[in-house]
């Protein structure tokens, strides 16, 4: 059973719909009590860092996510669900993140349009070519991005894949049982569905 | 470099696709969900639904279509037609729309743009603008509403700047003069709008040849919208993307071509 965290902001059902489409059992998690019996956790992200963290904290979900991750079970953060793993964000200074990964979330910069609202080509790092979540997606793959901020981990060895948008943007990262993407696999057609399917398989088989 | 997006547009009436579907394979005919799935599988980057009846009693039919589409189609979906309030937008987003397109209601009540942007983020607010050439206006173009029936006395360039100030996320520009003519997008219009605003721009109305798509990109459009050339299978999305790549544009190229 995969849990999809529903913290009440925006359209969070797309990630669940992609799991339904793949025939995977999943349920929406609206409170910390629902976290029992979950083998994989997805935190989808729509909206801003501050309001997302506030909603997670108010509903006790932030604590539940940290406890869940501490059990060593797989976590997938999407977009803001990736950003809240970090210590803080330029989007809402003063608001703490979950601090499960050290580093900051910074505003996109350069001669680019903000937000990045487009499909972009994602390139795996050489150390990640056999990574279970992306190994069958090819030497590069196209995913749909929609964001104005991006993550900057202090430990760069967690970076699994990047795209180019006014500089190198961390698109996929993995640290132990934590997996996170800046793009929206639930809106990225067949490549995105393959990625979601890979995550589900990893939840079933373990070995990460 | 921005990736140029190819966007099939489906005109939906009473839950059925109504424009130019005669030559589409019978298994897709009329059903927006099946047609959308087909376009997703053949490489469309986004989809636009325009609800052309948009009366309140039809609203539930549209919501059902959007919901069924979102269960099977995993690319961004913009839905427009008769959206008058934040609540209309909320319902569509809940059912699975990713972006909301507002047109007449935004002209009548510009605050609607900033209201929806403030509530759901400006990335989900597309302002659709129908324009017609008119030399009496400084830009040479006047904005029309109510499906192109009603002139507004608004200058097109003034209106696009207002939309940007009101925190719109994207503009969908349809040239009424070009729509249905197959003589290409209105390139002068696109160039002048591109020079006036930084917002992402979707060009609509007039595509007839592969070169028209390239010209649209050259004029500064980020999204290239077309309806009949796709519905009638005059071109596949693949062919359009090949043409763009051959002309030096960046497009997403991984879906299986059919």
Short key terms for the protein model shown above:
heterodimer, A: about 210 residues, alpha/beta, Rossmann fold, nine-stranded mixed beta sheet, three-stranded mixed beta sheet, about 25% helix, globular, B: about 260 residues, TIM Barrel, eight-stranded parallel beta barrel, 11 strands, about 20% strand
Instruction: Examine the secondary-structure arrangement and name the CATH architecture of chain B.
Output: Alpha-Beta Barrel
What is the mean pLDDT of chain B? 90
Q: What best-fitting shape of chain A do the alpha-carbon axes yield?
A: globular
List low-pLDDT spans of chain B: none
Could you say which overall geometry of chain B the principal axes of the C-alpha atoms support?
Answer: globular
How many domain modules of chain B?
1
What's the end-to-end separation of chain A, in Å?
Answer: 18 Å
Measured as a percent range, the helix fraction of chain B is: 25-40%
Count of strand segments of chain B = 11
Q: Return the CATH architecture of chain A.
A: 3-Layer(aba) Sandwich
**Assembly category:** heterodimer
The fraction of residues in strands of chain B falls at 15-25%
Can you characterise this structure?
The complex is a heterodimer of chains A (about 210) and B (about 260). By secondary structure, chain A is α/β, with parallel strands linked by helices. Chain A has a single domain, classed as 3-Layer(aba) Sandwich (Rossmann fold), CATH 3.40.50.880. Helix content of chain A is about 25%, strand content about 30%. Chain A has a nine-stranded mixed sheet, with helices on both faces. In chain A, strands 5-6-9 form a three-stranded mixed sheet, with no helix packed on it. In chain A, strand 10 and strand 11 form a beta hairpin. The model of chain A has no long low-confidence stretch (mean pLDDT about 95). Chain B is an alpha/beta fold. Chain B has a single domain, classed as Aldolase class I (TIM Barrel, Alpha-Beta Barrel), CATH 3.20.20. Chain B is about 35% helix and about 20% strand. Chain B is built from ten helices and eleven strands. In chain B, strands 1-3-4-5-6-9-10-11 form an eight-stranded parallel β-barrel, surrounded by eight helices. In chain B, helix 1 runs parallel beside helix 2 and helix 8 crosses helix 10. Classes of the chains: A alpha/beta (about 210), B alpha/beta (about 260). At the A-B interface, helix 1, strand 7, strand 8 and helix 5 of A face helix 2 of B.
């Amino acid at each position: 059973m995969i849990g999809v965290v529903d913290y009440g902001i925006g359209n969070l059902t797309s990630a669940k719909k992609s799991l339904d489409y793949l025939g995977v059992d999943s349920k929406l998690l609206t409170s910390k009590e629902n976290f029992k019996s979950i083998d994989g956790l997805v935190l989808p992200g729509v909206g801003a860092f501050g309001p997302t963290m506030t909603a997670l904290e108010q509903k006790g979900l932030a604590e539940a996510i940290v406890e869940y991750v501490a059990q060593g079970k797989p976590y997938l953060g999407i977009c803001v669900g990736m950003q809240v793993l970090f210590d803080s964000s330029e989007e809402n200074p003063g608001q703490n993140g979950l601090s499960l990964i050290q580093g900051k979330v910074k505003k996109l910069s350069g001669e680019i349009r903000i937000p990045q609202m487009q499909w972009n080509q994602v390139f795996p790092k050489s150390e990640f070519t056999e990574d279970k979540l992306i190994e069958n997606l090819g030497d590069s793959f196209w995913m749909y991005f929609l964001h104005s901020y991006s993550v900057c981990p202090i430990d760069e060895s967690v970076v699994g894949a990047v795209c180019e948008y006014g500089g190198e943007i961390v698109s996929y990262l993995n640290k132990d049982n934590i997996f996170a993407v800046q793009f929206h696999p639930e809106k990225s057609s067949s490549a995105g569905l393959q990625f979601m399917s890979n995550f589900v398989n990893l939840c079933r088989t373990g070995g990460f | 470099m921005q990736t140029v997006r190819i966007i099939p547009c489906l005109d939906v009436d009473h839950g059925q696709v109504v424009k130019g579907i005669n030559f589409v394979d019978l298994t897709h005919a009329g059903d927006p969900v099946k047609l959308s799935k087909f376009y997703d599988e053949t490489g469309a980057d986004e989809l636009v639904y325009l609800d052309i009846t948009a009366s309140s009693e039809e609203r539930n039919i549209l919501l059902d279509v959007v919901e069924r589409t979102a269960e099977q189609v995993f690319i961004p979906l913009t839905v427009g037609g008769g959206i008058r309030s934040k609540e209309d937008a909320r319902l569509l987003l809940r059912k699975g729309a990713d972006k909301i397109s507002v047109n007449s209601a935004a002209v009548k009540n510009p605050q609607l743009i900033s209201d929806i942007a403030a509530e759901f983020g400006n990335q989900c607010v597309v302002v659709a603008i129908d324009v017609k050439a008119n030399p009496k206006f400084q830009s040479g173009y006047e904005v029309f509403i109510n499906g192109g029936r009603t002139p507004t006395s608004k200058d097109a360039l003034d209106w696009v700047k207002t939309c940007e100030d009101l925190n719109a996320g994207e503009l969908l520009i349809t040239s009424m003069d070009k729509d249905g003519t197959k003589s290409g997008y209105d390139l002068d219009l696109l160039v002048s709008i591109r020079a006036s605003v930084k917002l992402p721009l979707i060009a609509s109305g007039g595509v007839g040849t592969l070169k028209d798509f390239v010209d649209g990109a050259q004029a500064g459009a980020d999204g290239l919208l077309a309806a009949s050339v796709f519905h009638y299978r005059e071109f596949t999305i693949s062919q359009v993307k090949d043409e763009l790549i051959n002309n030096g544009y960046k497009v997403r190229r991984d879906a299986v071509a059919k």
